[in-house]
Amino acid sequence: MEPQALSQKYSEDKFLNALADAYRLQEAIISATELCIISTNPTGIITSFNRAAEELLGYKAEEVIGKNTPVIFHDEAEIKDRAAALHAELNLTTDNLFDVFVYKAKITRQADRNEWTYIKRSGEKFPVSLSISVLYDDHQNLIGFVGIALDITEQKHIEQKIKDSEAHLNAILVSLENTILEIDEQDCYANIWSNHPEFNTIDRSKLIGKKITDFFDADFSATLLALRNQVRATGIPQEIEF
After folding, report:
1. What whole-number distance in Å separates Cα of residue 174 and Cα of residue 241?
2. 0.70 cut: is pTM over it?
């Protein structure tokens, strides 16, 4: 073989080896991540399904790759609701349910993130945060889509506990005979709880964000703020008559 040909073959082999190494590294990263990563071709047929997706959804990669679209993991009623929202927002009209996931990412060329309900093979439902991105080749031709999903079940449980706790606290505070005014670090009213008749005629939302000094003169405001500082420093409640 001529030296030039040998040199060209060596360069090609080196390039192919580097490409193979990069591919193996990419596959290793995708397999190791806890994020559920599913890619599809332009029509929505699944082309890759990582290990986290298998564990999260209960399907094996070979069961879905080349055979299904991600629609099988979703609640059809939820997809139709999203389709109606997209029709109102972007005038999308389609009978292809997969279009509902990718349409916004496709027209904006930016990742589109939404909360969805995933359905496991067992039928169990759980919430995810799903980000959809469009895949292009070097010539900007669309070659597919990738969806990255994060299970947010625990996050939703925490949010619900906070809501329940806030509702419980609000019910207790409103049942008290006292009027309770909460102020923030900027000396503005943050919350108001009261069942006193005088508050029934007041739009409380107009009080939120107002400062103490908006309702009291300078001398009394200074007294209240001094008490506030004392309570914050000592942790001991203080009383004042006025």
Report:
1. 22
2. no
